[in-house]
Amino acid sequence: PREAKDNLKSSQMLSVIDAISEGPVEGPVDGLKSVLLNSTPVLDSEGNTNISGVTVVFRAGEQEQTPPEGFE
């Protein structure tokens, strides 16, 4: 992350690998409603955005899969 100059606007980026498992998995049951940041779902129960700018890349755990970009 870089700190922006004194314009009171900055952006941050975080890359995380979570839920590492052995073998294939099904994925989040309710998509971004199942992704929580500090106990807050990215999307609420009606599909409205609680946290903007979130991108999720899912890998099922197959042998042939490629690593997510940035984690090569």
In short:
By secondary structure, the protein is mostly loops.
Task: Please explain how this structure is put together.
The chain has one domain. Strands 1-2 form a two-stranded antiparallel sheet. It is built from no helices and 2 strands. It has 72 residues and is mostly loops. The two termini are 20 Å apart. A hairpin with a 2-residue loop joins strand 1 and strand 2.
Keywords:
2 strands; little secondary structure; two-stranded antiparallel ribbon; 72 residues
Tally of separate domains: 1
Oligomer: single chain
Uncertain stretches of 5 or more adjacent residues: none
Major β-sheet annotation:
2 strands, antiparallel
Spatial order of the strands forming the largest sheet: 1-2
InterPro entries: Viral_Tip_Attach_Protein
Protein name: Host specificity protein J
Topology, please?
Blueprint: E1 36-37, E2 40-41
Antiparallel strand pairs: 1-2
